Every structure is written in structure tokens, then in C-alpha cells.
């Protein structure tokens, strides 16, 4: 049986997401493990606000999904 994190990552891959910006922590370890096995790249940031800023800027500049 698939974990919820696996389903979320599969949905992101199906939508063409290339990057996820964020901070690792014990709350999202399952998601990070699922991302590790996926084609989506995790971009580490130092703060949640900077992760959001980077994601919005990346999306606006490239038209890509993140």
C-alpha cells in the first residue's frame, strides 16, 4: 500500500513539477523520502518564506511548475 507522501509526489510528477523548495524536518521526512526516489529535485532553503519567494519567482520567470 502506498503512503500518502508517495501519492502526493506522484501527483506532482504527473503535473510536471520539476522542483520543490523547502526545509527538511521530522514533520516531512516521508515526503522527502518519496521525493528522493522521484525525478523532482528538492532545493533546500534556510527559511519557509524564502522557499515561497523562490517558488513564486521561479514560476513567474520560467512559466514552470514548482
From TrEMBL:
Alphabetized Pfam families for the sequence: TPP_enzyme_N
Signal peptide range in chain numbering: none
Thiamine pyrophosphate enzyme N-terminal TPP-binding domain boundaries: 3-63
Coiled coil: none
Family in the record: Belongs to the TPP enzyme family.
PANTHER family for the chain: ACETOLACTATE SYNTHASE (PTHR18968:SF129), THIAMINE PYROPHOSPHATE ENZYMES (PTHR18968)
Name of this chain's protein: Thiamine pyrophosphate-binding protein
